[in-house]
Amino acid sequence: MSKKQLIMESSLELFAKQGFEATSVQQITEHAGISKGAFYLSFKSKDELIIGLIDHFMLEFISNIDHVVKNHSNNKNLLSEFYKAAFHSFQKHSDFAKIFIKEQSQTVNEELLTKMHHYDKLFDKIILGMLERLYGEEVRHTKYDLIYCVKGFFHTYSHLFLFFNVPQDITRLSRSLAEKTALLAKHAETTFITDELYHTFNEPVNEIQNKEQLLEMIDQKLEEINDPTIKESFILLKQHVIEPNLSPAIAKGLTLNLKNHAECKQISYLLQQYLEL
Question: Which InterPro entries match (predicted)?
């Protein structure tokens, strides 16, 4: 385990017990068994660590759902598979999910709020694409309302699992919510969130800011990863980002190689978005 991973795992345990604000860098370093100097070699501040945790977990959450939606060929049960993937991701990282939900309602940190808003909009984008694929013109006037309905279903039932220990039958729940979503999509007529209203408080979202940021992330992974096949995929993709020289099929294949590696799922998603694969 790298020093950075050790810090993230140790801090997560403390954040789950005490929250972000009540946990100090001193407590994190003591819990991880490292010096403060070692901490600051990995993160410039506690705030940067918190942003790093959010990026790590939320990118995995978003990339998993995006993969299911884009690669599931059977529209008949796509909604059910979407809900299932979302609930399984939150279940897998339940400790972080609890922190994330609590801190959203309590934080006054502007950078943290901006980061949370960013991932919320990525979630919107995936839901919108799925609804348009499944229902097309049927939801032309209601699709933005439906985004909030889908997120409302997900957040409400997630609370039941995370905070009230309700028995988990995710397959049954996913089928139930898929039925309800389909009914709303096909029969709802009155809409509150119109296209105009939605875009007045939602800026267009970009998955990654610029080429330099992506190249920096690739270089970091090249230092961390030992697998020669994964390293070669990163090298080829880095060259392609700098100066496109691969066919879309080859570039997509390389990003899928990365996705199958546990530590590379997030950057695989970012590369696919950046390269529009």
Answer: Homeodomain-like_sf, HTH-type_Tx_Regulator, HTH_TetR
